Amino acid sequence: QVQLVESGGGLVQPGGSLRLSCAASGSIFRINAMGWYRQAPGKQRELVAVITGSITSGGSTNYADSVKGRFTASRDNAKNTVCLQMNSLKPEDTAVYYCYAAVDVVGLLHPRQYWGQGTQVTVSS
Predict the structure, then answer these.
(1) Which of 50-54, 77-81, 90-94 has the highest mean pLDDT?
(2) CA 67, CA 47: separation in Å to the nearest integer?
(3) Rounded CA gap, 20 and 36, in Å?
(4) Number of Cβ within a 10 Å radius of residue 99
């Protein structure tokens, strides 16, 4: 019904930058929230940055404390995309990053949550 396709990620040195992108497609009536989570080895998946609110109203962004001031999430309402600009990366940012979307799907009564396949970000010298 809805697919999330991620791009970006890779290997970067500490202090470097990366940009992740995610595009949603399918039977989308409205995207209520869209953003990023991450999961490091041996740890639970955690929120990184999620933009909430309807796609037509702009909404607001919730960031994990650990990334505030370094990461910036942005959304293109017309293209159903979300990006994550990651600056001043640290080794502890190493994780698989997952795109997330909460979507009102055409023909369905209740909103559903969707996840991308994940993209690896490794911060190492």
Answers:
(1) 90-94
(2) 10
(3) 9
(4) 26
* Alpha-carbon gap, residue 102 to 30, rounded angstroms: 9
39-74 pLDDT tens trace: 999 999 999 999 987 544 667 899 999 999 999 999
Which pair of structure tokens corresponds to residue 78?
A: 């017309």
Measured between its terminal Cα atoms, the distance across the chain in Å is: 41
Contact 11, 120 (CB under 8 A): no
Q: How many CB atoms lie within 10 A of CB 69?
A: 9
- Average pLDDT taken over every residue of the chain: 92
67/87 Cα distance (integer angstroms): 9
**The two three-digit tokens of residue 113, written as one number:** 């949550």
For residue 125, the one-letter residue type is S
